[in-house]
Amino acid sequence: MKILIAPDSFKGTFTAAQVAAAIAGGVRSTGASAVEMPVADGGEGTEEILGAALGAQRIFVPTVGPWRDPVSAAYSLTGDGTAYINLAAASGITLPAPGGRNALTADTYGTGLLMVDALSRGANHVVVAAGGSATTDGGAGACAAITEHGGLRGARVTILSDVTTAFEDAAVVFGPQKGASPAEVEVLTARLHDLAATLPKDPRGVPATGAAGGFSGGLWACFDAELLSGADFVLDTLGFEAAAAQADAVVVGEGRLDTQTLAGKIISVIMSRSGSVPVYAVVGSVTEDAPRDAFAQVLVATDEMHMRAAGGQIARAVPTAH
User: Fold this and answer.
1) Whether residues 135 and 225 fall in one domain
2) How many domains does the chain have?
3) How far apart are the C-alpha atoms of 54 and 91, rounded to whole Å?
4) pLDDT (tens digit, 0 to 9) for every residue of the chain, 322 residues total?
5) 226 burial class (0-12, 13-18, 19+ CB within 10 angstroms)?
6) Which residue of 42, 238, 295, 305 lies most exposed, with the fewest beta carbons within 10 A?
């Protein structure tokens, strides 16, 4: 028996790789075979997951954070010249802010510097996972950094996200969670409209241009960046469907199973790609209205010991053919 284990992270507690390893340990304890395939949707952990799966080199460089404070950040660079960058590494909401957090001044210049560093090392394709930003600058900081350092040098850019929000709505939708007051949301929205009017292409009204406070729209407008679903890109890159076709079951995971789980989040994408293979879920918690019936079984595991136990329970429950 072979079980494919493809969890997302349990945000703030366990990485996707830690969850996959714990569940796999339980599966293997029963004598079954486990394939670990930690996943992400363009947010937390995307760069690490893709870099590890592709054998990329991890590169640490000095850059600046959302408020231009010095920070060190890492990205992954493959042998064929593809760089994978988490926007949150240099422009993330959880980064230190020695001078205080200010939703109006946070910008993506530091992410632009990471992209510039990758280009200087020969990257011909830069993939940026746009989750977790502190910024609503419409990508102006990143575009400025790239332009100041000579442009893309023939490279192409792909932005990964799990949102469809348009550029002009970025502050309204995401500003409050970045600390913006209602008045600041109005200022940021006006600023996005003003910026859009000056860009080579107008990103307003274009789906997914509002990701990371309009970062995706700015890069789309200035450098023709490709905007893709993070979940689809990750699963395609990892070869999910081929692996699922060889499995007797698929195990997914996330920190909380709720009504949003099947509304475009990576678990819903995995389920749509799993064909007739039964899908089990190992999660940190379950809300009352969660779609339990969509899965062969839902198990709650709040630590690695219970994740391992869940893996063993699933291995014993899976039919040997599908």
Assistant:
1) yes
2) 2
3) 24
4) 999 999 999 987 899 999 999 999 999 999 999 999 999 998 888 999 999 999 999 999 999 999 999 999 999 999 999 999 999 999 999 998 988 899 999 999 999 999 999 999 999 999 999 999 999 999 999 999 999 999 999 999 999 998 899 999 999 999 999 999 999 999 999 999 999 999 999 999 999 999 999 999 999 999 999 999 999 999 999 999 999 999 999 999 999 999 888 877 899 999 999 999 999 999 999 999 889 999 999 999 999 999 999 999 999 999 765 4
5) middle
6) 305
Which of 201, 188, 192, 180 has the alpha carbon at shortest distance from 102?
A: 180
End-to-end CA distance of the chain: 11
d(CA 204, CA 182): 21
- Partner residues linked to 36 by β-bridges: 5
What domain range is 87 assigned to? 46-231
Is residue 116 within 8 Å of residue 106, measured between CB atoms? no
Say how far apart CA 84 and CA 153 lie, in whole Å: 17
Q: What is the pTM of this model?
A: 0.91
List the CATH number of the domain containing 299.
3.40.50.10350
Closest-CA residue to 124 (of 148, 150, 158): 158
Cα separation of 201 and 220, whole Å? Answer: 8
Whether the CB-CB separation of 68 and 100 falls below 8 Å is answered with: no
**Sheet with 279-286, edge to edge strand ranges:** 33-36, 2-5, 249-257, 279-286, 297-300
| The residue to which tokens 């010249």 are assigned | 81
Which class for 79: exposed (0-12), middle (13-18), buried (19 or more C-beta within 10 A)?
A: exposed
Among residues 172, 206, 231, the one where a domain terminates is 231
Q: Give the separation between CA 285 and CA 222, rounded to whole angstroms.
A: 42
